[in-house]
Structures are given as C-alpha cells and as structure tokens.
Amino acid sequence: MYQLTIAEQAQGLKAGQFSSVELTKMYLDRIKRMDGGLNSYITVVEEAALAQAQAADQRLARGEAGPLTGIPVAQKDIFCTNGVKTSCGSKMLDNFIAPYDATVIEKFHAAGAVMLGKTNMDEFAMGSSNETSFYGPVKNPWDTSTVPGGSSGGSAAAMAARLAAGVTGTDTGGSIRQPAALCGITGLKPTYGRVSRYGMIAFASSLDQAGAMAQSAEDVAIMLGAMAGFDERDSTSVDKAVPDYTAGLQKDIRGLKVGLPKEYFAAGLDGDVARVIETAIEEYKRLGAEIVEISLPNSALSVPAYYVVAPAECSSNLSRFDGVRFGYRCEAPQDLEDLYKRSRGEGFGAEVKRRIMIGTYALSAGYYDAYYIKAQRARRLISDDFKQAFAKVDVIMAPTTPTVAFKIGEKADDPITMYLSDINTIAVNLAGLPGMSIPAGFSQKLPVGLQLIGNYFDEARLLNVAHQYQQVTDWHRQIPQDFV
Amino acid sequence: MTWETVIGLEIHTQLATKSKIFSGAATAYGAEANTQACAVDLGLPGVLPVLNKEVVNMAIKFGLAVDAKVAPVSVFARKNYFYPDLPKGYQISQYELPIVEHGHMDISLDNGESKRIGITRAHLEEDAGKSLHEDFHGMTGIDLNRAGTPLLEIVSEPDMRSAKEAVAYMKKIHSLVRYLGISDGNMQEGSFRCDANVSVRPTGQVELGTRAELKNINSFRFVERAINFEVERQIEVLENGGKVMQETRLYDADKDETRSMRSKEEAMDYRYFPDPDLLPVAIAEKQVEAVRASLPELPEAKRQRFMSEYQLSSEDASLLTGSREMADYYETVVKAGGEARLSANWVVGELSGALNKEGKEITDSPVSAEMLAGMLSRIQDNTISGKLAKEVFQAMWQGEGDADAIIENKGLKQITDSGAIEAIIDDIIANNPNQVEQLKAGKGKLMGFFVGQVMKETGGKANPAQVNALLKKKLSLD
C-alpha cells in the first residue's frame, strides 16, 4: 500500500480495498520501524491519527469522501497545530503548543486527511540541509550519509521513504523544491499568496509560501486543491478562484514553449546533473515541446538580494521569541536584559542568530538604503526578467539544484557555500512565482530534480507539464532500496 | 537677552472602534487584565495582522477636517524595539508614507487674532500593552488588553510659541476628534495624550534651538506646566553658558518637573521597514468623497453659523461650540422655544457655572435642555422675572421638578394684576410723603427707592416694568 500514490489510495479507499485505519496503521508501523535512522519526524501523533482515520472511514462509508479523505499525511513542524507541539525545529519552541490550527492544517482536517505527525526541518526554516534543526539532522533515504536538503528536509525524507502518502512544506528560497530534488520526489511551491500563511510560523513574510510534496504531480495537484484559497486572516493571500488542479493534467503539451535560461546552465552546474537535465529536456521534445533558449540577465543578483531581504524580515519576525509570553525562557533571569539575552542566546541556534544579526545590520539606520532598498530594487529587476521571459515562453525549465545531495557536515561550517546551493531556486521566491521540482533521473545513485517555473497563478499548467512527463517516465515511482 | 519658545506637538488619539486595529479583539477599557487580547494581540507564532477598515475611514475624516491631503497610498511599517509589553518586538505604525499629510488648524490668540498651526502628518498605529509593576512580588505583570488599540498620531509643525498656544491647539484637536466621533478623547483613560517637542532660541534667530521631547502628557494642565517648566529650564541652562541636550524627558506631575529619560546617543534605532504582512492602504477618490459626504458640521462652521443664525457674539459662539455636546444642548434649548440670545446667556452663564462648580460635563447636567427651555419660556411670557428665574434654576438643579411645578409650589408667579399693585403703591405713597416731595422736586434717583419698596412688598413677584409705569402714573410724573 505504501507504494501507492494518493490518487491510487483514494481509489482503494473508495472501493473498500482497504480502510483508512489500515493505511494509517501501515504508515505508523513504517515510521516506527524505519524513521530511527532518518529522523524525519519530530512528533508522531499515533492516537489522534487513528481517531482521524476512523472518522475518515465513517465519512467514506457515508459516501461523503473527497480526494484526501482518509489519506495519511505529515505536516511540516512550521504549521501551528492545535494541541500538538509546534517546534519549528527550534529549542525556542520545544515547549510550544499552539491554541489554534494554521489555515493549511484546518483545510487538511476539513478534507478529511489524517495527520500522522509533524516533520523535522531546519530551525525556523533557515537552512538548506536540515542540519540546523534542534532535533538533529535528517538523513537522505537514498544515502543516509547525505543531507535531504532543507528546510523541508524532514518532509522530503519522509516522503521519499514512503513514511506518509503526502507531506507539506514551505518554501522561502527553495525549501520545498531543493529537498524535493535531493530526495527524488515531486514538490510544488505555489505563487505567493495562493496558500494562506496564517498559522505558519514566519521566516521571511514576503517570500514564505506553503506547498505540497508527494510522489506525483497528480498527488500534488490534489493536495494543492485542498490547501489553496483566499483567507481573510492573511492579507497577503489572493482572492482568486481555485481551479480544479487535476482537471487539466491529461492535456497534451504539444507546442508548449519551454524556456531554458542560460544563466541556470552555467559554471557551477555539475556535469552529470547537466546530462540528466538534458535527457529530461529531450523527453519533453519528444512530447512535442518547443525549446527556446532565454536569458534571465539579473540572476546573479538573486542570492545577494535574498540574503538581505530574508534576514531583514526574519530579524523582525523572530523578535517575538523573547522569553516573555511563550517558548523558551532562560533559568533565573537577573533582570529584563538578562532575560532577553539569555533566552534568545540559549533558545536560538547558530544559523538563526547569524541571520538575525545580518538582518538587524541591514535594517540599521545608515545601512537601510544601501542594503534593504537596493535589494528591493534588485528584486524588481529579477521579477522583470521573468516577466519578459514569460512573454516568450509558457514555462521555464532548469536544474533545481546545481549538484545532487551533499554529505552531512560537508557545508555545515561554510554558510556561503551552503547559501549557494539555493542559487537556482531563490529567484522564483523573489519574484513570487510558482515553481516545481520533479524527479528526472539519477547521478551517482542520487536523485536529480528538474525545476519547472511558471507564470503567476499558472500552477495548473506546471502540474500538467509535470504530469505529462510522469506519464512517460517512472523516476517518481522509484523508492530507495532500504525502504522498499 | 529675550528668548522665543518653539513648540511642536505629537498627539496620540485613540480611535473609537469596537475592535482592535489588526485583530477582532474588543477595545473595551477597564476589563480584567488580558481578557481583551487574542492570539494576534499576544503575538503568538504564525498569526497575522488584518487591518480594521474602520480606522481608515476615521483617518480620512480627520484628514478632511484639517484640510489635509489624504494619501492615495500609505504604507504600514514596523518599528522594531524590545519591550515586555510590546508582544511582537515591533509596533506596526506608518513611517515614510502616512495616511494624512499637510493639514492645518487655526487657534485663537489672547489678543483675539487667529493663528494657523500646521499639521505635518497624521498616521495610524497600534498601541502597546501595559507593564504592571505592583503586586507581583518583584516581578512585572503584563496586561495586553490595550495592545493593538488603534491610534491616530497627529504631528504638528513647530508653529507654537507658548505653552498657552500649545494648550489652545491641543484643545482644538481634542474638540475636533470628538466632533468627528473618531475618539472619545477621554484623557484619564489615555485616549488622548501628547508628546511635546520644546526648544528655545534668542528672539530674532532663525535656526531652531536644540529640542527636548517631553513624553506622554495626559492633560491640558500638565501640557502647560510641563512646557513652562521645560522652557525655564532650557533658558537657565543657556543663560549659564550651557548647552541644551537633545533628549527625551519625562514630565513628573507630582513634582511638577521634567527629567531626562534618554539622550540622543541612547536613542533607539527602530529599523523601520514596510510590514510585509500588510498590503499598502489604497484609498480611492470615491472613498474620500463618501467620507466627506458623511462629515458632521465642523466646529468652525458651526461657530460661524451660530453667529449668523442666532445673532450671537463671537465669544458666546466659541464657548457654545467648544464641544459638540454643548452645541447640541444649546440648539435643543432653542428648538424647544428658548429665545436664541437669552438661551445663550443662560447656557454660557448660569448653566456652565453650575457645571464647573460641580465638575460635571454637560451630558451629566441635572437640568436638561428641555427643562431649561421650559424655564426660559416663563421668562419670555413674563410669568417670572429674570431674577426669580435664578431661584427656579437652582431648584431645578436640585431636582425639585420642572420650572412650572417650581413656580407653582414656591408661588413665584409674577403679580400682573394692576389693581393689586396699585393698592400697594397707594400705601407706599401715603407712608413716605417726604420721599414723594423730593421726587417731585426732581430727585429722579428716588424712583428706585419706590420700585424697591414695591418689590419688597410683593416678594419680588411684581413685574418691575409694570411697577415703574404705575408709579409714574400715580405720582403724575409723565
């Protein structure tokens, strides 16, 4: 059953081949047996999951089931869950139990999905390798000496190891697409504003976007359909009708104009990864796509612009973690300043502190114009590049990451090299566009991801383009050996 | 050397919305600690602010009333600083692009002239919570009921030249926000408070002196006292050859002094930047026009109308339009039959005096506008004299009923039966032959003696005009 996609499981549930309780038990059992070596879950909620599965079975029996009813999923530990610990991968929130559900969580509940637990992640979503988590690093199921990527590394590893039928992630600079690529699964970061951010712990508010990861584009389409939509509690969510993302999956893509930005195929791209991507592009040609070389001339600005905007916003967003009202508080504070300094000093990890300091610096009087304002200007240039590109092409394709999964510890002491592992994904966040990563093959026995970038609110097209590829390839059905 | 004082005010006025500026929690004052704060006000992880649209309309109202520009696009920004009663570690305010800019307010000076005070800007922001330092055994309690309460901060140009002008300006803004219905202006509850930027310079000098910012003053009296203290302090420093430091000072009302809170060097860097959780506030011309159409009559227009419609003096019109409630009271008296100028005299005189004496607001007056009008009608139809009316008014104030009942019960009705008065006059003439002689010989002043005698005999109930006429007739003086 674990090999089945969400779509297939939903059929099985409806046909009575198995129950949601059976499915849920199967995953809980796999988690128990297999997650020890991966560390992909922070919290598993066995009892609650089984209770939800029972309710889902009743709903199925009543004939009121939707496409996610009874499907066991895992939620990234960045989404607040009423009554269940929401740690955000940090010591700061190790004791935090939210009194409310994030909108995304509410929507999965409403769809009748079963929540197996909360997945590991880089602390406050800051990281590209899942090594910054207070709960320890997550390992890549394809090779446990390598990282799963980050920040949604726990979700991606759990998905790759089939420890859930679908998982959620959030993507601020590549945190869904990069781990999806390194773990060989399908992941989508929607257009900024497509999915509500309410109850999702903020890292960089103008970049953060929740999305879904699963085996196939079809599964991601099902999940996005449940997650997307306007939310009056999030002023930045967009009031735009949610299409049926599964409706157009079968559409023929003959004549599709695919742009290949030359800047994404430049130095730094691993030769073997490049060959895998080229093979995938050839496959698209066979499907009738028309390939156009394009240029996104301001691509080089994206990493520096991102590492001003994201830390600036995070330095302010993380001010609320002060030891006063919730979360970690240091022992026996001497006075207010001591309370602040030690609670934050002891509660946050090194990477989070580094970004708070960078951001505080960038927003300081005298530096604001030179950094923040300039970064915002760069951001506009990057958006304009995409705007011009989408006047010529329907989708943009590129490698999701310049290399396959790297070794645990390899880049942990070198933040700049680590930051550069997101070089191909960051621009999409700065522009607010939707982006996907789909499994496209292997290099050195590790998965390679093909990135698809679409125009604003063009998720349906991205899913269609991904689905068509997955009809003629089986990379997305591959499971790491130890988890078969 | 003579010195010139320069003052600018930043007035924080709490907007009278039911719910907070970025959450659905109630704004009610005086509730048990932390019962008016939701997850958004507490700054819990993951929550997001959503703008209360009512505050935008209120800011537009204010902008139009001070003839300012309402910005088609304004932006909320984060003001970052750590404080225990600031839950998010930043206050959502407006910085580079405020909602209202370039307005003005005219104040009246002692010499009767009018002076225009520039309003630089007015911006929307959220209030912080409150730290409670008592009753927590060495710890500090936090009450977040006030956190997220909407404020409009109104920033003036440094156009005021004395504490008196500052008070006059503050009073006018206070009256205006209450007229507009955008704030209850309650100063005890902190709904209306101000910071004053004060500096002095040698008379004639163009450049401004170094200023001190006086924080959080919550009464008209304290504004005047704090500024006066600060001006004297700065002059003394300068005359002793010292320099005024740019700093923030706190006014201590108990000691009547200001003292330093922090210097410019210690001033915080708030690291303002646009709040990415909120969209820019876009205001269409249509919305501005809709608000304009809904504006009530403003104080100055009302004052002008009172002068022309009711033939009132400038002074009376100013006093009567000082607050919307006072103006409404007056107009109710007139509508209920009070003659316009007589009504003005009574509202400004007897009624205001009685209110002041007991520290009451006009809305708490024991004598309603209708009751006062009822009494004035009895003056107008000669039932009672103006003098006896004061007695009637006092009785009404004490809750003894309406004018007619009091006149009846106390027998205060004027004697208008000329036969009865003539009989009294005949007696008096008979008993005072000497005075009659003198009066007839031309000592006109004695007329008052005779009128007084009649009034005394009638217990004040005779109509003085009628008595005069009858006396003249009887003494054949015509």
List keywords for this structure.
heterodimer; A: about 475 residues; alpha/beta; Amidase signature (AS) enzymes; eleven-stranded mixed β-sheet; 11 strands; about 15% strand; B: about 475 residues; alpha+beta; Arc Repressor Mutant, subunit A; 3 domains; nine-stranded mixed β-sheet; 16 helices; about 20% strand
Describe the structure.
Chain A is α/β, with parallel strands linked by helices and 484 residues long. Chain A has 15 helices and eleven strands. Among the domains of chain A are: 261 residues, Amidase signature (AS) enzymes, CATH 3.90.1300.10; 77 residues, no CATH class. In chain A, strands 1-3-2-4-6-5-10-11-9-7-8 form an eleven-stranded mixed β-sheet, with helices on both faces. The longest helix of chain A has 22 residues. The mean pLDDT of chain A is 97. In chain B, helix 7 crosses helix 9, helix 10 runs antiparallel to helix 11 and helix 13 crosses helix 15. The longest helix of chain B is centred in the middle third of the chain and has 20 residues. Chain B is elongated, with a radius of gyration of 30 Å. The chains are: A alpha/beta (484), B alpha+beta (478). Chains A and B meet through helix 9 of A and loops of B.
